[in-house]
Amino acid sequence: MGLMRSLKRNILAPVFVSTPGAQSSPIMPGGTTPGTPSSKQKEKSSVIRSKVVVALYNYKAIEPGDLSLEKNAEYEVIDDSQEHWWKVRDAQGNIGFIPSNYVKEKELLGLQQYDWYVNDMSRQRSESLLKQEDKEGCFVVRNSSTKGLYTLSLYTKNPHPHVKHYHIKQNSKGEYYLSEKHCCASIPDLINYHRHNSGGLASRLKASPCDRSVPATAGLSHDKWEIDPQELMLLEELGSGQFGVVRRGKWRGSIDVAVKMMKEGTMSEDDFIEEAKVMTKLQHTNLVQLYGVCSKNRPIFIVTEYMRHGSLLNYLRRHEQSLVSNQGLLLDMCIQVCKGMAYLERHNYIHRDLAARNCLVGSENTVKVADFGLARYVLDDQYTSSGGSKFPIKWAPPEVLNYTRFSSKSDIWAYGVLMWEVFTCGKMPYGRLKNAEVVERVQKGLILERPKNCYKEVYDIMRKCWSPVPENRPSFRVLKEQLISVAQGLLVD
Ligand code: ADP
After folding, report:
1. C-alpha of residue 463 to centroid of ligand 1, in Å
2. Structure pTM?
3. Cα dihedral sign for 105, 109, 113, 115?
4. What's the pLDDT tens digit per position in 139-190?
5. Is residue 106 a known part of a binding site?
6. What CATH number matches the domain at 312-490, 1.10.10.10, 1.10.510.10, 2.30.130.30, 1.10.10.60?
7. Alpha-carbon distance 24 to 66, whole Å?
8. Which residue's alpha carbon is at the smallest distance from atom 11 of ligand 1?
C-alpha cells in the first residue's frame, strides 16, 4: 500500500505553552481601576491590595508544604507565579500551596459561592443530575446558552417527574425576576424569595443537588509527578487496552485514581516519563487529568483521574436505548470533547489518536478526552505505522494515510469521526470494510453517511471536519462556537 510510514519519524513535537495564572487588574478601594501607577504607587497598592481568594471546595493537604482549604474561607495569595499551584496564607497565618482551580478571587466570585450555581452545565446535564437526585423542588442555576443570561432548572414530580427550565429575566431597572410580579435586586435574593414562595413556579425552591463533583488537581501536589507506589492501593480491574491493565486505585487511602500498568516493552519509557512532567500541567475540565507516574519500578504506572463510567464508546453502546432519543445530550457530549480538544489545540498539543474509545465518562455525564499524545511513545509498529493492523485508519485523514502528517487538523478529522460514533451510539465507522477498502474510499473523497435521526446541521459540521484539504477544516475553537450555536438553535434553552 506504500503506507508503511512510521509515526515516530514524522513527529511534530508538541510545544507546551504555559499560560500564566490569570492576573486581574487591581481594583482600588473605591472600586475604580487605577491608570498606570508610578512604581512607587504600584508598590504601595500591592502592599495594600493583596489578592484575596475564596475556597470553592474543601481540599486536604497531604504533602508537606501544601495547605488545606476550607470551603468558603478566605486566603491571601502570596505567590501565583505558577499556573496550577499557588502559595497562600490562611486566617491563622499558615502558609502553603493550594490548587489554583479550587479557589476564586473574592472580587470575581459572583454566583460561584452558591451551591446552586453550576456555571456552564448544559440543559441536558442539569436534567440528568436533577432526575438522579429525584427530590421535589431540587434546582440549579446555570448559564443560559445565550451569553450573559441565566436559567433556573427545577425538578418537580407534579404531575409526573420532570425538569422545568425558566429564564431569569431582567426588567428595565435591572432587577431580576422569574414572574414579573416578584422582582429582586440580585439573583441570590430572587432564589431566596422563591424558597418561600413558589410565585408561579412548578414548586418552591428547596435543595440543590449535593455532592457536586470536585475538580481534579494538576498533579497530586505542587511540583509532584513522581508517585510512590507504596502510597497506591490497587483495587478492581477497570479494563485493559493497548498498554496493559487499568485498575482503580486509592492514593493515600482517599483520592480515587485510575492506574495504568504499562506492559513492559510497549512504550519508550524514558521519553514518556520526561513528557509526563509536561502532561501533568495540562489541565481542563474536559481532559482526563494525568496525576503522575510511578517510574522507579517496572512496570511503570500511569496514574490519572478516575472516571466512573469508563470509556465513551462502551457508554454509548450500553445506553443506546435512552441516548438515541436524546440528541441534545449526544450533542452536549460532542461539545465537551470539543472543549477539551480546543484546550489542547491552544497549547499546540496534538492528540494523534482521538476516538470515542479514548474518551471517558464521569459523573453528571461529563466527558473527558484521555490518552492525548501517548501515541508517540508506543513501540508497536502495528500501531504506529499507517499500514499496521492496529493503526486507527478509520479515524485518519488522507494526509496521515499518505504522509503520516499529524496536526491539530488531523485531530479535527478524527473528531468528525468521533461525532459520527456518538450520533450512531457507538457503531463502527465504515462497518465491516477492511482497512484497505477504507483507505481507498477516503482517497476518493467518500465520507461516512449521515447517522439515522442525526440533525442535518450536525452532519454538516461533521462534513466540515472531513474536508480533504487540512487547511479547509475548521479549528476546534471555531468548531466549538458552531456546535454551541447549533445546540442553541435546535433546543429550547
Ligand atoms: P489503552 O489506552 O492502554 O488502550 P485504555 O486507556 O483504553 O487502555 O483503558 C482500557 C479500559 O480501562 C478503558 O476502556 C476503560 O474502560 C478503562 N479505563 C481506562 N482509564 C480509565 C479511567 N481513568 N477511569 C476509569 N476507567 C478507565
Report:
1. 29
2. 0.82
3. negative
4. 999 998 788 899 999 999 999 999 999 999 999 999 999 988 899 999 999 9
5. no
6. 1.10.510.10
7. 24
8. 239
